[in-house]
Structures are given as C-alpha cells and as structure tokens.
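Subgroup meeting minutes
Present: P.N., E.W., G.H.
Scribe: E.W.

1. P.N. recapped why we're keeping a running log of single-chain structure predictions: easier to compare across weeks, and new members can see raw inputs and outputs side by side.
2. G.H. added today's entry (431 aa).
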Amino acid sequence: MNISLIGLSHKTAPVAVREHFALDADELSRVLSRLGETYAGVAVLSTCNRTEIYIADAQPVDDPRPAVAVLSEIKGNPPLEGAPFVAVTGDAASRHLFRVAAGVESMVVGESEVLGQVRAAFTAATVAGTHTPALSRLFHTAIRVGRKVREQTSIGRRPVSVSSMAVDLARKGPGDLSEKTVLVIGAGEAGQLTANNLIGAGVAQMIVTSRTTERTAEIAEALGARAVPFDQRAQAMIDADIVISSTAAHDNVVDIDMARSVMTKRPDRPLLLIDIAVPRDIDPAIRDLPNVRLYDIDELQAFAEQNLELRRGELASAEAIVEEDVAKYSDWLRSLAVVPTVAAIQERADALRLAELERTLSRMDLSPEDRARIEAMTAALVKKLLHAPITRLKNPTDGDRYTEAARALFGLAEDLRVLDEDAQIEDADPS
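Output recorded in log:
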C-alpha cells in the first residue's frame, strides 16, 4: 500500500487559485465519491490555505492530472493556466500531513485551527466511505503528532491564528485600537476568534454582522459588541475605521459598488479592510479606491514571517517529533505488504497440521479430553516453529528481502494468487 499527496497551498499558489479550489461540504462529498471510484482510499483536506488530496492505493500516484481533472470538473477551470498542484509519495506524503497537523506548514506557524481541520477531513472520508486502514492510521497519527508538538514544544504556547494575525495587522494600521471602531463580518469560528482577539487588544467599539442573525446576537452579547443586520453592513462600514471579514460566502460580501458608496459618505476618513476569507469576501478592485487600504490573506504572509522568526527556535523540536512518527508509520505501512505472506504460511501450516492430526488420531482410541490435549500440543508446536520466521518477515528492516524467499520456500505462489483473487472478488462485490 502506498500513500500519495496531490495538492496546493499558500506556498505554491496565490489566493485566486486557492479560493477557486476551496471545497464546501457538498463539493467535498462529490470529489471524494469521484476519486473513490479510481483509488482504494481518498481523503481531502480543504482549508483557506490548502486543498490537498491524500490517496492510499496499491501503486504510488505521481501524476496529479487525473485528480486535478476531477477537481476542475466540479469547480471549473482554474483562473490561471497550469494550477500549481504538486504530487509527492511515500514518506514525503505522510511527513507533509504530519507537518500540517503540527502547524509547521501553516501560514501562521503554530496556529491551532488546522488540527480540527485535519480531523474533519478524515471524518468526511469516513462518511463518504473512502477511508481505508492505511488512511485511518495516517490521519490518526497526524492528529497525535499535532497534539504532541503542541504539548512538548512552545510553538503553540501563545495561541495564534490567521484571525489573531489580522488583529495584529489592525493594530499596526490607523492607530491605537482603543480609539477605533472595528466591524467584524462573519460569525463562524474565524469571526468569533477575530472578535475575541479584538477585545483582548482593547478595541474601543466593535460591530458584528453575519448572515446568521442569532449567532451574531450571541457573539455581540457575549463580547459587549453591537450587532447589526447583514443587509445593513454598508452603514456599519461608514461608522467603522477597520473592517475584518471572514465569512464562508462564495461571492464577495463587500463589492466595489458598496465600497464606493461607503467612501462617498466618509470622504475624509481612511478605511482599513482586512479580508481573511478564502474564497475572498472583499472585491480586490476596492484597493484602487482613494483613502482605502485592503489586505487579503496573501498579504498577511509578511506578518506571518515575523511570527515564524519568533518561533523558529521551536521548529527543530517539532521536526524531531514529526520524523519519529514518519518512521513509525512507514514501518507499519511496509508491514502490510507481508500480511498476505504471513497469513498464507499460517494457513498452509495449519492445514497440514490438521490433516496429519486427523490421519493419526483416526487410528487411535482416545477420549475427547486426550484428543483435545494432542490438538492443543500440535497447535502450540506449529506456532513456536513459525514464530521466528514470521517475526523476521514482520521486521521493517529485513522483512522485504525475506518475503520472496519465504513464498518460494513454503510454496505459496498459488496460495497468494487465490488470496488476491478472493480479495478482488470481495472488493467488487456490491454487497
């Protein structure tokens, strides 16, 4: 069994490409279903900064084009020709997922939200029926690595996220937040984190809006903010000094016409807009308006680099944890290759034992208790005789080079062919 990764991220693709391939729940289900027709196991991790397909299959997948074609079939052609998807296999693929879960691959190193996103990716694969034992072990190991890195290093000691970076950027903007009004658009996890961070930063006044009226009211009440209906967000922008937007909308929630109208009603006051959503919430054309400064998630990269410098000293410790579990997972994955051989040896030995036992005992007049004792003795004898060769076969260092020899010595070629045919029939059986 091989693990492969096909994906793009903030390190390889601009936000225009990332937002194009961002998947909502329905699209994710369709992608999993389509790719599940081709590969044994598939899981997809789709976040604001990455769309990554993890594949478990008999052969490594080093050509990204078939998987990208499925994505394009569902999402349409990308806005840029030659979307920068990369393909890696083997240890490099598992290592990457473990680094993602550890927060090492995040735009904001050490951010905490990605661990939940990794968990959600495997949950979606489980619901879609595209999970396999190899993928299950891969994702559960990744989650364990992420927790271990946060517990044993200082990468996650100070909570960080794209939301907190947005607030840090706002503090560097038009002056002291204790004198500013900030509008937060979005009441999801990112919106709530943004609102909490603004309170911690001492914002003078906060306005909250989203499409979900009840959720908006809850956040506003909990944080002492002012809630406004979503259709009144333009009026709220007139009152605000800073707007931070983080919805899950597919289209812009602040378009050029809305922004132009807002700025005519506040001509002498600058407006800072920070868009941390993917797909983007705020029309990029707005940055051409006078007296407006717009940052999108790609422009947070410079601030994320400063965060990386602060945490670089912890990376070596995180990398060591990742490498330890990459080796363990690789050993376990290699051990799967010898399972049919081990099973065939055990089956062949037990069949011979039972045949000889029956032939011998049929000539003897023994009580049921004595027959049971002799049968237990022969089973224990076979187990002890096979213990050393099976242990050697399962050894990740030596197992590969002994497998073919074991098949030849025990005459297992036909047995394994039958096992493979049975497995194929079972996989094809719709029941």
